[in-house]
Amino acid sequence: MTLLRRRKTRRLFALTMLMTGVLMLFANLAYAQGDEHSLSDLAISINTMWVLIAGFLVFFMQAGFGFLEAGFVRSKNVVNIMAENFLDTTMTTIGFWAAGFGIMFGSGTPFFGTEWFFLSGLPEEINGLPPLAFFFFQFAFSAAASTIASGLMAERTDFRADLIYSFLVGLVIYPVVGHWIWASDGWLAGMGFLDFAGSTVVHLVGALVGLAGTLVLGKRIDKEFGKTIRGHNIPLAAIGTFILWLGWFGFNPGSTLGATDVNAIALIVLNTDFAATTGAIVAIFLSYAYTGKWDVSMAFNGSLAGLVAITAPCAFVTPTMALLIGAIAGVLVYYGVDLMETLKIDDPVGAFPVHGINGIFGTLAIGLFATDGGLFYGGGFAQLGVQLVGVLAAIAYVFPISLLMFYIIKKTVGLRVEENIERAGIDGFYHGIASYPEFTPGAYSLPTKEYPGQQVSVLEKSS
Amino acid sequence: MTLLRRRKTRRLFALTMLMTGVLMLFANLAYAQGDEHSLSDLAISINTMWVLIAGFLVFFMQAGFGFLEAGFVRSKNVVNIMAENFLDTTMTTIGFWAAGFGIMFGSGTPFFGTEWFFLSGLPEEINGLPPLAFFFFQFAFSAAASTIASGLMAERTDFRADLIYSFLVGLVIYPVVGHWIWASDGWLAGMGFLDFAGSTVVHLVGALVGLAGTLVLGKRIDKEFGKTIRGHNIPLAAIGTFILWLGWFGFNPGSTLGATDVNAIALIVLNTDFAATTGAIVAIFLSYAYTGKWDVSMAFNGSLAGLVAITAPCAFVTPTMALLIGAIAGVLVYYGVDLMETLKIDDPVGAFPVHGINGIFGTLAIGLFATDGGLFYGGGFAQLGVQLVGVLAAIAYVFPISLLMFYIIKKTVGLRVEENIERAGIDGFYHGIASYPEFTPGAYSLPTKEYPGQQVSVLEKSS
Amino acid sequence: MTLLRRRKTRRLFALTMLMTGVLMLFANLAYAQGDEHSLSDLAISINTMWVLIAGFLVFFMQAGFGFLEAGFVRSKNVVNIMAENFLDTTMTTIGFWAAGFGIMFGSGTPFFGTEWFFLSGLPEEINGLPPLAFFFFQFAFSAAASTIASGLMAERTDFRADLIYSFLVGLVIYPVVGHWIWASDGWLAGMGFLDFAGSTVVHLVGALVGLAGTLVLGKRIDKEFGKTIRGHNIPLAAIGTFILWLGWFGFNPGSTLGATDVNAIALIVLNTDFAATTGAIVAIFLSYAYTGKWDVSMAFNGSLAGLVAITAPCAFVTPTMALLIGAIAGVLVYYGVDLMETLKIDDPVGAFPVHGINGIFGTLAIGLFATDGGLFYGGGFAQLGVQLVGVLAAIAYVFPISLLMFYIIKKTVGLRVEENIERAGIDGFYHGIASYPEFTPGAYSLPTKEYPGQQVSVLEKSS
Question: Given an 8 Å threshold on Cβ–Cβ distance, is B432 in contact with C242?
Fold first, then answer.
């Protein structure tokens, strides 16, 4: 106090304070403007980077689906399934760009959005991200939904039909359910329905489209129920599975739309990994228990089943519950494959048990295991009931509209390849190339001149 | 005001201010030093992370090129093409480390840099990044340039020649054009020439080297123009294409050299994806229109054509223009493949239509479609003219020097494998292993003892 | 000074100061709370994102190991090796979750940790990261260790034995050495032993487990020492190698546990790449010098040898030394493969020369080449001596305990498949599927009914 007693001292003090203030003001400006960055800006950078990198991984899942399916079909249809997966990505992009994104995330009604078509009229930001970054991440999700269906419809679908339904799934089927659940004004979102990264939105929807497709198509000519038609290339299926598992590290943690909540993203990453782990273990041990064989294709599908099942609850459950959810998914996929045989539904790659049955289970798992609101955590049946409503709503919309879509396609461009083409393999007639021309000469044996509209032999391309 | 009326009050006020000041100083220190981070530091972290991760993806493109080319050649030359792609990466690294990086980015003349050889004398930072991070990203680019050439020269090039030209491309051919365009004192940069991520710098340069190579080599013995020699493994080509598309998400957005401009990186990511999308669609639909076949290899090359074409303009055009640029690229690659047949230039994997023709188109596309300065946006012919100068300059330098390089290699170590080796396949004689020894026994049939300098049989390796 | 002379002026000044103070306080709050982010928070976000993305890449290395090994074995054992790599990941996860993580990183004794079992009792953060993010990154490392062993034991190991030892490696073998070296209270860490990213912790440990395994197993029936049994699929091995190289960009730079030290991560990334580069070049040139063949499988193993060798010293050496370390690794792996033949140790994929010999070399390389403390940098023999102690300690623990483990497995569940199964291939009998059923019909020829406990034929699965 004595310091301030004299006028001179007071002046000194005041001057010091003034200088301090000016210095601090400069320091603050240095943070805020001098660096051309603010804390907010950097947080947006971090979140955008996370979402874009996650989107790259989700995009790469298209390759994963492609190789998994290619490995699980016969060599005579490998070019076809690769072409489907590759082109599905592109056709869905066009549909999602034209209308899907707007229907899904635009404002409008509780049932669909009515803005942002063709990327027009976008706001400054969506969910705190640059709109185009958000669009990119969401486009990658839409592509996954339509590609899942191709697995159920493998080895007999007309390629033009595949292009058309992929476009329509991205344009209108997938986005409507997405709007219900992920748009702020969606009616299921309003009810408190939770689906963190898309067990229902992506996986169940894709599986329902495919289920409708396989039912309208009917079984493959060569399929005898109760017997497995083995895939032609297990390493290829392994590549697909590993890429899908990797891609899920974008799919689930990217759905936080940011990386600033570090505990959330760490939990989600670990839960994702854990569910895949126990899904694979349980499914292959079941196969060993029943058949005496360590069926690695069951391990692949088991890991994917765990990944699908943890997709909805990944942000809401503990790692221990993730291990449990994965284990249950492994059980479900094992018996699910048998169930498809019993029901005489031809699902060449096991896509419905993986994406459909476990899409449902994962969605309900929130109602069972969520730390906040789950039945087994004392939350009662309220959340579980809401989850069930969401699942039923998705089924009630997607399944009939898909049946209708495939029926119309069947009656117009045609849904299924001709019988002799199916027997010979789709690759030769539809794509003009064999998957391994030096190793599968039979793929070229089909005479192609007989078919109208096909001008050249499969072996040649006019220059 | 009354607060300050009495001396006692003033003292209290002064003390409060002093304490406030001290507290705030501490708070500021807490931001600046206490946390050991400043906003600038974190921005550098974000940018470095982005560029390194982008570099990982660009590095992985070497695998993409390798599998695409491996899938498109015959099984007897698969080990060779994999070895070329794998070793190209390493040889280019040595060349780029020794001199390429310094020539490309060092200061010196408008035509080439004259510092930073062997990473010596690096500054504290380059373009706001740790110099080694910048070097890593740029090395990955240089590797892409030299690998592109191997596609045009596939199935007949001497492996030693491949190692030598890869080294020289990274050492001196690629970096000179790079300096003109990307160094701050480059003469094309000074003219206002724009090439955001390298349609000219990487793709056109690589394609021109390869074009010179294939012209000096001549066509493959088995090649009949107007007929396609089918690749041996379509799934392998699909893996390559998917990896390349993924890698481009590093190639283009990483070229921002940072992630703090979030709207820019989001735009670039989406434009990259969109151009690939329409490139694939247009190319496969053209193939269907002309041949009645959905040629998936055309879809692969179409997507890559779109990616090459959007590489230069990705930061300067709207997403809608990216869709258009990709579509045009799809047209160009389709007719480009035919053009190579007509001109009787043997390009086994279609690398020149993809990287050369679309490298040129992508560079010119800035002059046509750039929101700022493009012809169709009212910018007149000024930018287009500058773009054309850059393309012509790159051709005028790279093509003759590459012809000279291959001519010298031809006259010294030899450029082309012997005829009977080419017929039997390069794998057995040059590499001593077959790509699929259990499935391609013919690869072992060539007697190897006859050739001087080859001490052991292909089947054995002395321990 | 005159400014403060009058009372009125003083009041004005005081008011100004007060306002400035209040404004600055607000500004500070805006940084700290208004944005809901602080600099510390963002730094943690950046570090967490880096470690998680690095973890994704390390996880993907499981695919890399899988395809490398699958490519290097014969087609009759491909499903088996893929199943091993896939399930190793999962079994190690369970072991590492149950106890491994706690033993490795928990506090306790200098020899092992005694907390954090089943992820219980985790603190708020570990090494500045969310504990689950740190766990995820470390789990991916543990999986690598156990997968390395499968390469040495390929083509003859009982699948159940593989599952058991993978679990035990993750549970207790790997974590103990990890505790010595990477836990803050580890006894080797206390001595100043350095192993930045795990040349000893991961690679030498995995190789020692595998060495014990192959010694207890004995050689494959078909193996003649001095002759190479060629892998069935070189492109598959190439995919594996490229993925591993990519994954190492997570393995080494992720081990910084953060991205805020940008110069460190840039140096580590570049060193990692450089060592792989020279490793590949030197190994393939040696193969050419000795055999006249450019053996691409040697280039693959050479790059991996360089990567293993740089893993320990990547943060402590210059890029030029990284090039040298990689080159030495290439020499070591080349002669190492011969050494295994001379010692009559059957190592089907060359895993011991890559991970064992170069794990040792990389660890010692710190003592030789570290800028701070290396012998060739004037540091004398002190660091080198400590490094040698660490290597010997790891060998003294891992090798005997692994021998014991495999001996017990051999005497209980059995370690090796029966002779006729080994001849026919493991895929058919153990896994019930062939890797390429259309191309390897022989894989189905083994009668399976004769074996007790195997209920169904390999061709059918009861629904």
Answer: no
Query: Which strand (E) or helix (H) includes residue B351?
Result: helix B351-351
Residues linked to residue C108 through DSSP beta bridges, in sequence order: C113
Min CA distance, B79 vs chain C (Å)? 7
Q: Which of A298, A171, A310 is nearest to A231 (CA)?
A: A298
Residue of A11, A65, A136 for testing the chain B interface, max B β-carbons within 10 Å = A136
Rounded distance between C-alpha atoms, residue C398 and residue C401, angstroms:
5
Judged by CB atoms closer than 8 Å, whether chains meet at A139 and B239 is answered as no
Nearest beta carbon to residue C299 from set B4, B13, B83: B83
- Which uninterrupted H or E stretch holds C207? helix C205-217
Alpha-carbon distance of C19 to A447, in angstroms, equals: 89
* ipTM of this complex: 0.89
Least CB-CB distance to A130: which of B17, B57, B262?
Answer: B262
Of C44, C118, C458, the CB nearest to A262: C44
What is the crossing angle of helices C319-342 and C296-311, to 10°?
120
| CA distance, residue B397 to nearest chain C CA (Å) | 29
Tell me which chains share at least 3 CB pairs under 8 Å with chain A: B, C
CB B51 within 8 A of CB C238: no
Please state, in angstroms and rounded to a whole number, the distance separating the CA atoms of residues B436 and B456.
Answer: 20
If phi > 0 it is left, if psi is from -120 to 50 it is alpha, else beta; for residue C121 that is left
What is the DSSP track for C231-259? -S-HHHHHHHHHHHHHHHHHHTGGGGS-S
pLDDT surpassing 80 at residue A234: yes
Among chain B residues, CA nearest to C292: B454
Query: Integer distance in angstroms from the first to the last C-alpha of chain A?
Result: 97
Residue of C nearest to B129 (CA): C262
pLDDT digits (tens, 9 = 90+) for A365-413: 999 999 999 999 999 999 999 999 999 999 999 999 999 999 999 999 9
Q: What is the pLDDT of residues A31-50, one digit of tens each?
A: 444 446 789 999 999 999 99
Determine whether the interchain pair C17/A17 forms a contact, defined as Cβ–Cβ distance below 8 Å. Answer: yes
In B, which residues are within 8 Å of C234 by CB distance?
78-79, 82, 433-436
Cα angle B185, B186, B188 (rounded to 5 degrees) comes to 135
Question: What would you measure as the largest C-alpha separation in chain B, in angstroms?
Answer: 111
Supply the pLDDT for residue C448. Answer: 42
Structural contact between residues A375 and A368, judged by C-beta atoms closer than 8 angstroms: yes
The two most distant CA atoms of chain C are separated, in Å, by 111
Question: Can you read off the two tokens belonging to residue A182?
Answer: 């992920």
CB-based contacts of C131, cutoff 8 Å, min separation 6: A266, C119, C122, C123, C124, C125
In three-state secondary structure terms, B108 is strand
- In chain A, whose CA is at the least distance from the CA of C22? A21
Whether residues C87 and A284 touch (CB distance < 8 A) is answered with: yes
Q: Compare CB distances from C43 to B42, B60, B463 and report the shortest one's residue.
A: B42
The DSSP symbol for C240 reads: H
Q: Tell me the three state secondary structure of residue C233.
A: coil
CB-based contacts of C134, cutoff 8 Å, min separation 6: C51, C105, C126, C127, C257
pLDDT digits (tens, 9 = 90+) for C347-356: 999 999 999 9
Percent of chain B whose predicted confidence (pLDDT) is above 90: 83
Longest dimension (CA), chain A: 111
Summarize pLDDT for A124-180 with one digit per residue, the tens. Answer: 999 999 999 999 999 999 999 989 999 999 999 999 999 999 999 999 999 999 999
Please list, residue by residue across B167-177, b when 16 or more beta carbons sit within 10 angstroms of its beta carbon and e when fewer do. bbbbbbbbbbb
> If you count residue pairs, one on B and one on C, with CB atoms under 8 Å apart, how many are there?
224
- How far, in Å, CA of A131 to CA of A15, rounded? 49
Euclidean distance between CA atoms C265 and B133, whole angstroms? 8
- Average pLDDT estimate for A97-119: 96
